[in-house]
Structure formats: structure tokens, C-alpha cells
Amino acid sequence: MTTPDDPKPIRADQATLFDLPAEPEVRIGTAPPTSGTPRIRRANRHQVAFRSTTLDALLAEDHDARVIWAYVEGLDLTPLYHAIGSVERGSGRPAADPRILLALWLYATIEGVGSARELDRLCRDHLAYQWIAGDVAMNYHSLADFRTGHVALLDDLLTQSVATLMAEGLVDLNRVAQDGMRVRASAGAASFRRRPTLEQAYEEAKGQVEALRIEFGADPAATSQRQEAARERAARERAERIEAALDRLPELEARKEPDEVDKARCSTTDPEATVMKMADGGFRPAYNVQFATDVASQVIVGVEVITSGSDAGRMSPMVEQIRQRTGVVPPEMLVDGGFAQHEEIDAVSAAKVGCTVYAPVPRPRDPKVDRHEPKPGDSEAVAAWRVRMATDAAKLIYKGRAATAECVNALARGRGMIQLAVRGLAKARAMALWQALAHNVMRGSRLRVAAAGKG
After folding, report:
1. Distance (Å, whole) CA 93 – CA 71
2. How far does the chain reach from its first CA to its final CA, in angstroms?
3. Is 45 within a domain?
4. Is 158 found in the same domain as 141?
5. Domain count of the chain?
């Protein structure tokens, strides 16, 4: 028997540690209460937590960074390792693995990253770049030097990439499309000077270099050696650029009409850049980047960078470059009207070359003249080209040029080939080779997947 002071007996299905308030009666079909503070889960970025995982586990298995790394792992980079000064049991700080540097720039090219400083930051802040670096510390000086310091190696790797895809039956080189695109140079329009101004600037620059040497020799303690060396180096490099501009000026003067020779100008920032007419109709300092692409696979098989805004005379050198890379002359070349000079058609159509040209025949001034009718002065190859381009079969084949060459150029534009971040023809060519090699790596990966699906 229980007393009023005794607790009430608790049934087994109601056992709790503390007394709970009575639950409100809920009637079926009634709406929940709308008053009160909503209960939500808020972000807490200050909670200490230990996540037991690896960089490799964080990156998706089909990520493009893995494709790039798999390609780099298969390369023979012995020349790069031989160039490393620090060795086992020797002095010097260990160098970053060249494979990491190569993979970082290939992936950065795919992602449209063209700045060494930006790439350095991404190696600290972005998972894909962290995964490639694998906790190896980077610095932008090493990244910038690597990007432009191995042009010959990049050219060899491009050749190897094409040869590998040909051996796998993914590239046949039966039909190649060539096109050029003008890429803005890293030089301002205001840096272009005429001969009198260049000669005056050169004398001033030489005087500044000499004055700095005298100043440092008179009082070595006036400034730190590092500061003085930097000032002297900057003055010397400016003098060298101006001297290079004066050396190139005769080439630019030769392109002018006789009464406009004195109007020729060259840049003191990038002497090898040339003012060209751009796609928007404006004129700016630029380089002309040439890509040759296999039509069937859209793999880049040839790369060149020139300082002329015209495509004239560039078809036969590209055909020869493809022959040297692959040992094969493409049976058919698809080019636009800028490449179709009669001398070029004769050169690539010769029996020892054996290449058929598909290019539009220019419209004559007289609309009554049939442009596809051979003319008395035409060579056999030029006459055949005129007749060929009037056929429906040739017109159908030529449609592949825009779908190939212009597509590849558009991809390169999307990956940063709008304005160069480097100066000089050699470095501009390095940037074009990075674009071509990165493009081929990704294109080859997709071609293999497609081939495996068909199999």
C-alpha cells in the first residue's frame, strides 16, 4: 500500500531518469504549430575534428588530374633528373620532382591557369593541385622557370604523344587542318618606338648601366649587394631589349612601302612581338600561333609560332614539320584562303611530297570570270586545285576544316591563349607547346575510352 508521499509506481514502458512534461495532444489532420524558433543545423567551422583520410581518397577516381599524372608517370624524363644539382649524400636542398612540375603545368593549362604565382597559390588552396604536388612545397620562381626552360623537351613530348596515338590506331593523318590565331603579346602599344627614339633610349640605357657600375664600385657599402645587383641587372636587361629592337628594325622596315620606312616601330618591352590585325579588327602587339590538327581525331600534330600576322607561306613548312615528327606526309591539307598561294600549292602538291590541298579559290574582281576555270599561267597543281574546289566532294571535305582547326583554336582560347604572360618568341612557342601537349593528353584519354566502348 502506498502513502501520498510515496512516488507513484512507474510502468516499465514509461521509465525515465527525470520527469518529462506531458506531451501535447496531437490530433490527426491538424497543422503543426507555426510559432517559435526553427530548429536548424548551423555551420560550425571552429569545431576541432580529426579526419583520418589521405589526399588520394579525397580526389575522384575519374578526375582530370589523375589522367595527367598517369600520362606523366609513363614518360622518360631522364634529362630533367640529370640536370638536378643536389644528389644523395651531397650538399644542396632537394629539388622538386620534375614529374610534379610537368603535371602541374599540364593540369594548369587545361584549367586555363597561366600565372606562376596563381599556380603557386593553387598548390596550397586547391585539392587537385595539392594532390598532384603531394605535399611537396612549390614556389613561383621554380614554376615560372620550368614553364619556359624546356622547349626542346616539350617539342619531343608532343612528337611522342602523336607517335603513341598513331601506334594505337587512334590517329591516321589522312587529313590535316591548319589554322593560325593571333595571340596578344605581353607588350603595350606605347612600348613601340621608331629608330631615332630607339637609338636615343639605347644610349641612355648604356649610360645608366655604366653609372650603376661606377656607383657600386665607389661605395660598395652604400646599398646591399642584392639591391645593387638587382638594379644593375634591370638596367642591363633593358639595354639588351632595346639593342634587340634595333637589330630587328631592318626586318620591320623591309615590310614597309619605300615612302613609309621611317614609320617602322619595334617594342622595347618585347622586341619580337609584332603589331597585327586581331580578330576584332583592332591592331595590337601579338604572335601568330599555328596549329595543325588531324581531322578525324582532333589531335594536334604540328605547332609553330611566327612573328608575322600573315599566314602566307606557312603551309609547306607545316607539312614538312609533320613529316619530321611522324615520318608521314598527310595526303590532304585543309587550309583557309590565307595559306593558298600558288607557290605553296605547287610545293606541297609536288610528286616528292604528294599532298592534296583543299582551300577556297579567291573570288576574281570580275564577277563574270569563273574562278574555278584554269588560267593560262596556272601550273598543273594550281589548275587541278581550281577544278577540284568546284566539286561537291571537295566542298564537303573542306567543311571539316572549320569543325577541326577552329574548334581546337577555340579550346586553346578557353584555356588562356588570349594574351601571353611571357615575352619573346622562344617563350611564346613554349606556351603553344604546353597547349598542344595538354590538349593531346586529354584528347588521347577520351579517344581510348571511346575505342574501349566500341570494343
Report:
1. 27
2. 86
3. no
4. no
5. 3
Instruction: Name the amino acid, one letter, at 68.
Output: I
| Residue 245: DSSP 8-state | H
pLDDT above 60 for 223: no
Tell me, yes or no, whether 36 lies in a domain.
no
User: Which CATH number do you get for residue 411?
Assistant: 3.30.420.10
Which positions ≥6 away from 152 have C-beta within 8 Å? none
User: What are the grid coordinates assigned to 79, written together?
Assistant: 634529362
Q: What is the mean pLDDT of residues 178-207?
A: 88
CA distance 448 to 441: 11
Question: Could you give the angle at the alpha carbon of 243 between the alpha carbons of 242 and 249, nearest 5°?
Answer: 90
330 in the same domain as 246: no
> Are 281 and 245 within one domain?
no
Using the predicted structure, report yes or no on whether residue 291 has a pLDDT greater than 70: yes
Q: Say if residue 351 is in the same domain as residue 296.
A: yes
Query: Crossing angle of helices 407-414/425-454, nearest 10°?
Result: 110
Domain match, 119 and 195 both: no
Which pLDDT tens digit goes with each residue over 348-365? Answer: 999 999 999 999 999 988
21-38 per-position pLDDT tens digit: 666 565 555 555 567 788
Tell me if the pTM is above 0.70: yes
Give the H or E element holding residue 277. strand 274-277
Domain identity same for 144 and 155: no
Name the residue with higher pLDDT: 20 or 203: 203
353 by Cβ neighbours in 10 Å (0-12 / 13-18 / 19+) ranks as middle
